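Hi W.,

Here's what went into the run:
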Amino acid sequence: MFEPGNPSVETSDVARDPVLDIVRSPVKVTLQDLSLGDHECSARVQQLRKAYFDACPEVCIERPQLVTELHDELAIFGKPRYTILDKARVYRGVLERREPIVWHHEARDKHGVAFQFEGNSLLAGSTTTRFKGVILYPEFMALALWPELHTLPDRAANPYQLTAGDADTLNRKVFPRWLDRCILEWARAEVERRGEPAEVRPDFSLLQHLVFFLATKPECVSHTIPDFSRAVREGLRAVIDDARRHAGRATSDAQRMFYQAIAEVVEGIITYSHHLGDKAAAMAAEEPDPAKRRELEALAEIHHHVPEHPARSFREGVTTVWLCWIACHLENANVGLSLGRLDQLLHDLYRQDIARGAMTVADAIELTCCLWLKIGDHVPAVPAAGEQLFGGSGSNQAITIGGVDQDGRDAVNDLTYVMLRATELLQLRDPNLNARYMPGVSSRAYLRRLCLANLRTGATPALHNDEAVIAALTARGDALAHARDYGVIGCVEPGSAGRAYGHSGAILLNLTSALELTLFNGRHRHTGLDRLISIATGAPTTFRTFDDVRCAFERQVRWLVGEAIKVNNALGRAHQAFHPTPILSALFEGPMAAGKDVSEGGAVINSSGMAIIGLGDTADSLSAIEKVVYREHALGLPEIVTAIEHDFVGHEALQRRLMAPDKTPKWGNEDPIGDGNALWIVQLLDRVVTPEQNYRGGGYRVGYWTMTNHAGFGRLMPALPSGRRAGQNFTSGFTPVSGMTPYLPATLNSVASIPARYLTNGVALNIKFTPDSPPSDQARLELFTGMVEAYFAGRPGRRDGGEGAIPGGMEIQFNVTRREDFIAAVHHPENYPELLVRVSGYTAYFKDLSPQMQEEIINRTEYGLASGAASHAEPIYLAPRDSADPDHQGVSC
Amino acid sequence: MLRTLRRKVLRLLSRMFSDQTAHRMARFLSRKLVDQLRDEATDEFLELLLHGMEIAFALGRSYRRDNLEGLRARYVFATRDGTVGATVQFEDGDMKVFDTASDQFTARVRFKDAAALRRFLFAENQDVLDSLLRDEVELDGNVNYVYKFGFMARDLEERLGVAA
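Here's what came out:
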């Protein structure tokens, strides 16, 4: 483990900077040793963590079975629309009927063999009946697992255990009821019914081809942060009382129904907690071990008090969050639902317990570890093809720490460091930890501590620049105080915590398809050049200037964005009609005042988000065309098109030239052409996307993060003018193309010079460091910290139409693992079960990623910390997984 | 006519057999399908698959119980060039096959060739991805019914003793 000595509070930092004296609240950070390096995992946490890594996810049928039964019992199936009260009654029923599980002591390994384990969590309850469960949502995409019900335990990529009896129940009792009732089918049926003209009619077949865009609403909305503050501070009983008061003043039946629905579901959450308390009390009565009995009695008392009433202790606060979190996942698919700023929410309770001697820092770390393990107690249900193309992702439950408060003051506190330490100790995929840093306000000691955590874990937390993010959010109209209170959603997307219902991952757009349509006059090689897919914008022979190319590209971008938004809005209307969300609305700022569900626009902020895949590859392709065809006149555009049609076979010299950064401009080297095209694309997308309106009356926001989609889309796409060959990965997130940027400072300058106001849905800049350079731990940490400081520092505006000073880079995330270790992990995944990596936004276990995604991470540009220079390693290529043995993937380098 | 008669006779016979015997008989009567599930798929694959499924439904009580209860759907399978096509109607616990591709369907699967259809329905892991990568299968209508058919096909494969 990386040990540079303990970073501690630097009072000299405060003294040196008069700004810090004003804005920092000294009482918030009382820890002398910010690294908390003396604290290790407790025996309890060690036992739970070991079981967690030994356990294979098991499909849990409790939720789908209960939800289906209740839809039948309440005669909801068959209704033309499901009301919010219908859904509230279903969820209340599920919460009241589900099995209250206090402690798990059994799980199954990857061979399906049951094993027992010790370790009693400090938190009771679970999202599924399994220790590590796969939650199924038949309302969304669970039916995609149908063909695999007999083969899930044996599949090569990320197998799930499923008993024959449970498979039979799903096949006969659950799935058939939802054949015509999932979101995608509702949306398609509605579009058929409306019979709209072709120009406004969403074309769902585009989704099926996979190469244009993915719309994620058939699977979820989820990507948001609930507001737990009321539940923690006032208790859920107060929410029910408030709903009843509002109902008395309601002006419409719809509002009255909304408030009734809120009271129903919140009552359900309280009942579930009471059931847990009752079960713990019953277990205590029969428990011979006095220590365990006391633990059970404590759990019983806690669950009979919270979340119904205000939390009185840090543990009760954590329990309230956990219970609400279970309820949120009962209603909303486990994709990107995020927890927000827990270090802010729970700090008062933490401080109070520490001050009165009711809790030690070690206790707080142990409890936080238990919460982290609970948060990771479920995984998303992904079919085999999805695993291969886009897999390896967890539920992407982001937690945000640090940053400034709503008044702009430093918000870092002791609990921030406790959460960091828990993250280091556990090194879990979920939750996905994100740290905020405000230049000039946050201390350098804090930044150094964040960098230390990255060196220790190799991959977490991701770092966010408050100055840039707040500028981006306010540019889209968020109030300053709301923008300052942002949390990270899913991967890297910023949204005002508890206020922004933003479905930040609504659309994942493959930008390279717009380029493909430009170069092939509205056709796409993946769907066949004999078929006009979009609009004819001219053959390459007709583009006389580079502006002609850009003009055609802009038209294709407008078409692609327009189609994606039509599909997203149609799917959103299906959510409104068939999946109202009373639980989320009860835990959100806005719906109570407005008297309407978040899916109807009840939140304070109602945006939708688009993530762009392939920015670097598209920018480099445009730059190649600009330089080679229109500046040097070395070739005509048709010759380049011919070369990419042949995947550069027979055109190897041209490919070498296009791939050489010293001959062809690339984004990320401070080259005016390379960076200019990237900026032009970002501005174009801002211009095209942000004026669009979603189905809730909110706007669209654009971001540049890719999860694993840069590998998935890359695999589907033919060769590009950048020199990239068919099937190769695209670059991840907001990162220049791997192997094209030899010098890190130039890369960081290029990326940071794109103004934050165009990046309102977040960015993921992935940087890979060689951990051995320099050899001294202390020197490494200092260089690391200095590099982040420089990247986050504001700079004069450039190449942006005379814009003044702009904030520095918005986000950065790291992989600090030796290339040899990655390659060894490919060959022997059993030796690296816990190797954590940053993909493009979220963290993942390296062994769970598809070979293509592993290849992408290994081949990312790797920089030395001391020199900032890229190392020169030959790219490796990995063969697909062999389905026979998931441990030994048949991988060759 | 003959098909209907055969189905009815096999159903009557199925009352006399255990499920195991029924599966053995189905396997015997679907020898060509078993061969094509193991080796190369020819242009006959779709016909053999539907024939095998029809026999298995007629003979196997548990196969019927597990898959046909309440199912009401019309599937259309066709090659992209239109040379091969069939319509399958599931209704009242029965399966009927027609030799032409109907315009009316709950779900339609259009595929490049027999191998593509086999990859799509039966393949494990990588082959499913390959069919997507090659864009060799197109779906229309309600895709949930395709998932349902995928389960029935794999269930058949298992009952015929072909699945790994």
